[in-house]
Amino acid sequence: MKRILFFFLALMPLFAWAQAPTLDPTATYYMTNDKGEEETGVIGSETGPLNAPVRIVFQANTSRPFPDGFSSNAHYTWTITNTKNTTAAATPIVRNEEDFELEFNESGTYKAQLQVLFYDEGGEDIIYEYPEEGDEEKIINFTIAESKLEFPNGISPNGDEKNDVLKPKEGFKSIVSFHAAIFNRWGQKLYSWDDVNGYWDGKVNGKVVKDGVYFLVVSAKGGDGIDYSIKKAINVISGFNNGEDENGNGGGGGNE
Hints:
This protein is mainly beta. It has 2 domains: 2-144, Immunoglobulin-like; 154-236, Immunoglobulin-like (Sandwich), CATH 2.60.40. The chain has helices at residues 2-18, 68-71, and strands at residues 22-23, 26-32, 38-42, 54-59, 62-63, 74-82, 93-95, 99-104, 108-119, 126-130, 139-144, 154-155, 175-183, 189-193, 203-204, 207-208, 212-222, 227-236.
C-alpha cells in the first residue's frame, strides 16, 4: 500500500504538467471607419491600419485545468509598445489584468506581448510560465494610421444624394479632435459640429441656403500630432435659391 501511495505522489507533478493551462492572447478592435460606420474585428495578420480613436479589448483567453486553488494564483503582464515612437517619453503601457480595454489616440506601429506566471496554491513556487522557455512568443501587432483630413470645394444640396452634404472627403484617418463651422460672407456663423463623422446639409433653420459662396473653418488634431487649421470657400449650388440667403434672411421651402 505504501508503495502504491509513493508511486501516486511521484506522478502528481507529471500530472500537473500534463494539465498545464493554455493561453491564446487576442485583441479585438472597435472603431468608426471613414464612412462613419461602426467596425469591429479580431486583430490578425490581415488587419489593415486602424483609424484613431480606436478601442481595443485585450484578452488572454486562459484555459485552467488546475484545481481552483491554482486558478487564482496567476500573475499577468501585458506590455504594449509603440515601436514607431522612439522618443524618451514613449514608455510602454503595462497592464496586469487578464482582460482589459484601452483607447488608442496616437498613430504608430504597436506590439502587444503577454507573459503569465502561474503559482502553486501557496503562491510561492512557479508551476507554469507562458510562454514556456523555447516556445515562440505570440505577439499581437497592429498599426494606427497616420492622420488625413480634406474637404471638397462645394456641395449641391438638391436631394439627389450626390454631394448633398458638406463632410470630410472619404479616406480621412485618425482624427482625434474636431470642430468645424460654416460662416456667411459677413462672418455670421450658420452652423457648427464637433464630430468628424458629422456634416452640414446646406440648411439654416431647416431651409437650404441660397446658392453662393460660404466659408468653412476647421480646427482638428490628428493621432500623429498634426494640427489641422482649414479655412476655405465652399460653393453651394442647389438650383433652388428659395432658402435663407447668406445674411440669414428670407426663406421659402427647403430641400435635402
